Prior knowledge:
By secondary structure, this protein is mostly beta strands.
Amino acid sequence: MNKLFPVFFLVLLAESTALSQAVGESRYEQLDSAYIEAAGPKPGRGGYYLYTPEESWGEISVTGEPDIIRRLSTLPGISQGVEGGLGLYVRGGNAGNNRLELGGVPIYGASHLFGLMSSVTPEIIAFSEARTGGFSASSGNFTSGLIAAELKSGHTERPAFSFSASPYIEGAYTEFSSGAFDVRAGGRYSPIPQLGGVITQIAESYSRFGGLVYDLTASVSRRLDDRNSLELMLFSSVDRLDVENERVELDWGWTSWMAKLGWSSRLDADTNLELMIYGSGSNSSQSVTQIVRSSRGTRAISGNLYEITAKCVADRRFSDKFSLSGGMEVMYQLGGFNISAFADTRVKLLRIVDFAAGFRQTMHIGFETVRAGFDLHLLADINLGRNFGLEFSFDRTNQYHHVLEGLPTGWAMNLPAPIDDEFPEETANQVYAGLFSRIEFQANDFFGAMGLHFNLGAYYKAMDNLVSYISSTNMFRYTSSSWRYDVDSGSGSSRGVESSLSLSCERLDLNLSYTWSHTDRCFPEINGGRPFPFKFDRPHILNSRAAFTTSDRTGGSGNRVRQRAGMVVSYSSGNLMTAVLRQYEGSSLPYWDDYSYDAAFVNQIFNRLEMSSVNGFRLPAYFRIDVSYGFEIYRPRTVHNLDITVFNVLNRHNPYMIYNDGGVWKQISIIPLMPSLRWSVSF
Length: 683
């Protein structure tokens, strides 16, 4: 039995159902809100990808909004959690092992509406880097994927404004220069909580639906002279959602914030120095109040993660073949200090080898523990010819806090926890080997110059000191002193083969990626200490993305009109779950004649369930097609964009979970067919 819901009710219902059961790197130079690529190795090697917000329009989201994170979901080695969400599992790691940086500052829990879209204004972003391996030592405290988004910078020659509107979110952005200051600011607001309240009133469902969803991102920079500049960066994101009916009241809330003050200095033509101090944090909470016969019972959980950091980075380019960077970082997080020193170097050897190495030493000082760990990164590209070569990378990474994922959905409601001697820092060792090829050729007058890029490689990743609830029901007993008794520490491993093919030119951008992988976990107190597959272990993941400019011409009025079409096709093996295989009916107790209890309660007393092994049942395969069509209209003073998108155009009922309700098997499907219309104007 399929159940499809509007997005703003469906995710809540899926959550409430689960709760009720619980009872080679390119160099870039900034130039006035644009970027130019200097000569150097191309992105796409060693798990390194680079894209701009303008390119990400082809990544069709549920809300139709451009997204700096969305494109990562289609890259090799990435498994997606909840359909349409941003809970991403990179090469077998947990969603809480990823790191999102905004202007060099980590952002925690930066998503809206249970992960349906990121909470960063896309217009303020210059470009984003995504890495699944081949990391640098300047970023630490993570073990899986890294997304680094850089804000627009440089002097603003003239004021610019833009507005956008869609059924799901409205936004505004501006950038201008005020004397010595350059200001860029953007904000968005979602009317979904209010629309949900209107719908419930019209449907007379005797329910209340409300809340507040918005985000703000801003930067203010001042150039002191030709070599020195200051920057202030601010970010805030808020989600508050609540719904109630005659039986239950559900309340969710998560916020994310960041403030950074930085100083940059160009000491000479080849040497740069950057100092920064920042604070960043997040808060998440959820509560369920059940109403039975006029009595009320409430369960609630909450978590906070924040850090205050001072960081210094210096880099020097000695020649075209050798560069060196390094620095120090002092961080206060979850009641402890992390003191780190790091260094990265890049060397070109024998004209055919591009070699990079990074080392990061960290000392963690907590209230009752002192621990030390190191990160090590090695990356070598061997260019065997003009168009192809081999690549090898090794990454050892450490994360000095835990994220307890009671319900592994990737939503922004997981609970952070500090490390100690009993639950030490999480560690991952990852090795990758593969080949790459890049060919450039002239196709024809219509397509022009084209680039063909192909990658094929394999990785192995070993993870240690992972933390998991022994049972997801334990998340409701979370307190600052008792969580250690409800979780277990264990290990995991992941192995896979990744391949990707991209074809790009001025009119066409085509990407195809395929991943075969296997990921498991092993905890002494879960599944009898035997290894079991990870919930989002998907042996086969296939993603394709196509963006094509169908028309680009100037009309008689002098207005240029560009039309573009896009399509995304996603296929993967179904996710895993622990399922009820069968039920055995028990005999009633003698003289049991109290019929005031409902059937479900009596069933739980007398009958017994036979469960599968942990994550021993695989759901049917996941398949989805998204389509889009857009118009860009260039007028003398304004640029209009109109994008029409349809997420899950086939309205396929992809299952997220199945369960038995009174002898009837039912299925929860997260996202039905979701059309969206987004209009924006800039001037």
